[in-house]
Amino acid sequence: MEALKECCANIVVYLHPSKAKKVEASVYRQLSSLLFKFNESLDGVVLTYEPKFSSNLAKILPGIHPYFGVRFEAKLLLFHPKPDMLLEGEVVKVGQQSIHIIVLGFSSAVIADEDIREDFKYKIKHGKEVFVSRSHKKHRIKVGTTLRFSVKNFDEEILHICGSLVPSNTGSIQWLETKAEESQAYSITEKRIGNKRAAELLEPANIVSYRKKLKSENHIKKSRRSKSRDS
């Protein structure tokens, strides 16, 4: 997924002296407070962390409040969707005016009707709401569908995404992958047929026949030119 990125960050955590005997546990507690929140310094929502401590864990900071300053390096997985990025999520609600999706189990996304391409038509099938492609009847979007969509904007405070199904490379992932496999299989078949035809043309008997055909066609062309000159 384009919106996911890994990074290494140098982090400083300030701990009360009472936590001196449980530094690592206290650091993990502080890092846990960063999860699933947008962090401006890191430019993303923290999803996972993996701290790496040095042998010298903590130093007392000078000043009135003798807090411990713990410096360490952490490997982080961040989530920060930006416009035109492609995201994937599970459809949880389908309505005539919108499609609602959950991304990575925590971020909500909505695609309004004006951002659903005209190829999709809203229908009610067997009592269930669904969007069906006019050009490909098997391409359907319903509750439970894993959907690929494009990002319009991302609200960093409430972690809400506005998406779009206008780009042609968006829609049901199952259908998109099936279409890609069929296209690849067709391309391989065409290539094999082309190679077979080329091999047949390279056979001695076919080369002689092809040369005779060219000679005959050239003879006919010369005869026509000669007649046109005489006339």
UniProtKB/TrEMBL annotation:
<keyword id="KW-0804">Transcription</keyword>
<comment type="function">
    <text>DNA-dependent RNA polymerase which catalyzes the transcription of DNA into RNA using the four ribonucleoside triphosphates as substrates.</text>
</comment>
<protein>
    <recommendedName>
        <fullName>DNA-directed RNA polymerase subunit</fullName>
    </recommendedName>
</protein>
<keyword id="KW-0539">Nucleus</keyword>
<keyword id="KW-0240">DNA-directed RNA polymerase</keyword>
<dbReference type="InterPro" id="IPR036898">
    <property type="entry name" value="RNA_pol_Rpb7-like_N_sf"/>
</dbReference>
<dbReference type="GO" id="GO:0006362">
    <property type="term" value="P:transcription elongation by RNA polymerase I"/>
</dbReference>
<dbReference type="GO" id="GO:0006352">
    <property type="term" value="P:DNA-templated transcription initiation"/>
</dbReference>
<dbReference type="InterPro" id="IPR045113">
    <property type="entry name" value="Rpb7-like"/>
</dbReference>
<dbReference type="GO" id="GO:0005736">
    <property type="term" value="C:RNA polymerase I complex"/>
</dbReference>
